[in-house]
Amino acid sequence: MKKTTVFNNMVILVMAFSLLFFLGQRILAGELPVLVPDLPQREGLIRNPITFEDLHNISQTGDRKGLYVDLRNPDLQGKIHTGPYPFEAGETDYDYARFRSSNPLKNGAGLLQIEKFFSDKYNANSWPHGQAGSPPTPAISYRLEIRDYGFYDSRVNFKGNPQTGFQKNLTITEGPFVNLVRSDQPQRVLITFETDNDCRGTVILSKPFRRRKKESGRQFLPDADFSESKFGSLHQVRLSGLLPGHIYQYVVRCETRAGETVGSSLYSFNTAPPAGEGKIVFAFISDSREGVGGGERNYMGHNFRSLSRLVNHAYRLEADFFICGGDLINGYTSSVEDFRLQLKGWKQSMAGFWRSGPVYTAMGNHEALLNIFADGSKYGVSLDKWPYKTASAEAVFAEQFWNPQNGPTPSDTRRPPYSENVYHFQFGPVLFIAFNNNYWWTTNRQCKNYGGSPEGYIMGDQLAWLEKILQQAEENRNVKFIVLFAQEPVFPAGGHVQDAMWWNANNNIKAYQYNGKEVVAAGDGIIGVRNRLWKAVARSKKVAAVLTGDEHAYHRIKIDGSTPVGVPDLDDLNGDGILDQFSPNPDFTYPTWHITAGSAGAPYYARQDVPWKDSIHFFSSQTGYCLFKVSGSKISMTFYTITGQKLDHIENLMAIKNN
């Protein structure tokens, strides 16, 4: 009798749990604009075997040789390389790591060598006293060369010497970075940095002075101001009351509750000129995800070798800031920690520049953080990770970057946010607009089954926002030029003609959403969406260029009312959604340059046949970036290769408006 009762109770419990699970899935489905697949969930392409916290799991107390790192994974083997950081900090204006000592990484742990750098032969940083100027707290950079995974870099501050032994010190593990330098708020700048333990961060700011060239590593100017962050490990210090068009020097200081302090090197930044004024220089890069060939091409999810060299070149040519078109990293992971570490690795390649100038980022198709379901195929069914407010690709992207928060609000509040992945800002006479044509991604061919957007798609709410911002800019006298940037080419030419915003003329490609009962279309076909976007671009006299990536090459295309681009109403002769002819679009009023530079280190693509092939003015598969110079009524563009060669140049992007 007792056995029967126990059995019955177990059956009731199982049924109750099953009912709760079923109800939970129904509730979840009702809260999501996608239909949750009735498939088992699985992991995606997790790139890294460690987390950001593992990378900084360093012994508080070391010995006379140095400190010790433990990655908490005994399967990891390789080498550990160390060197002073920043190398010869008193004279360099661009932080970089230089390694001089190597030790084994065994079973996920090993020595971070410090002792060697105190000997006369290797003491380039003049420890323990440092060099003239503003010496930072003694620190070493370390590189973990992990077998089968590539390279992982960071740094650690230390106390002590070879006689007394070494101890770990409070460390700035990321940053400082200069953010939100812009002419729509020229008196404000945001300095961000991260520490490995809680502390109070302070930015010590010099008196402003007028000089265009950025300088660092020199004597600190007097009349300093102080701005503090809240006590914690993530620091955002907002500077205000700054003078537009001036240069400031700054130092970061961090203090623990026990009163111990550490400090950074001396850096500097330029504030933006007033809106509508000034000469500016900016750079554009895209597609820096991992390359082929090993070594530093495989670095935490991106191509450190190519990206760091391109960024340093732009710094030497005095670029004020970078705009980035996405595919920064490999992505396509199901792990938030993996996604986060890949983005942090990318920021390391930009750090030497980012100390003194802002970096504005757009999302690419590889900035994908996913819930993945096993359907028997190689990659499974992938949907943007939920909960959207905290775990989506859009949310974690916003967490890791500091872009303006002035984008649109999703018309369906169940969808992921646009905040910091769609936005605009002004710098001098130029309005920059970042748009996202990789928003709310679902495995392309599965959108109609579960909901979500295919690659290259732009939802109607974002399109309406873009039309509004472009129209406002057209009426704003302080805006002389407009530059838009995103990931997917509006008009591809090599590598992505099968998707991007073209899909080989297939206008059946569109977004879908789940309304609680069924999955229904959530917008027009991709060709109609593309034409609506370019119509808004082409009716503006001020758009200098639309910049994209995705295709791992450089190309410059002139799009106007005579370019064969495809018009669904005219070219879909049999009504199947596939365009049979390629008509020009008379709504493309003003000629505009479409420039793709997905050439920052991802594996190259070559040129392919497209309807607008006669409008392609230049195509190259070289690694490189675009540098723009704005002065008076002109905005010029030069494409530089990784060897420093000027491969393409146009003196004035606006000249075609008068043709």
Notes on the structure:
The chain is an alpha+beta fold and 659 residues long. It has three domains: 52-164, Immunoglobulin-like, CATH 2.60.40; 174-270, Immunoglobulins (Immunoglobulin-like), CATH 2.60.40.10; 280-658, 4-Layer Sandwich (Purple Acid Phosphatase, chain A, domain 2), CATH 3.60.21. It has ten helices and 32 strands. Strands 9, 10, 11, 12, 13, 14 and 15 form a seven-stranded antiparallel sheet that branches. The radius of gyration is 26 Å and the shape is globular.
Calculate Rg over CA atoms.
26 Å
Q: What number of structural domains do the residues give? A: 3
> Main β-sheet, in a few words?
7 strands, antiparallel
The helix content is 10-25%
The end-to-end span amounts to 95 Å
> Mean pLDDT score, rounded?
93
Shape: globular
The assembly state of the depicted protein chains is: single chain
Task: Return the CATH topology of the largest domain.
Answer: Purple Acid Phosphatase, chain A, domain 2
Number of strands: 32
Summed up, the helix count is 10
Q: Based on the structure given, which CATH architecture of the largest domain is correct? A: 4-Layer Sandwich
Secondary structural class: alpha+beta
Low-pLDDT sequence parts: 1-29
Name the CATH homologous superfamily of the largest domain: Metallo-dependent phosphatases
Name of the CATH first level of the largest domain = Alpha Beta
Portion in strands: 25-35%
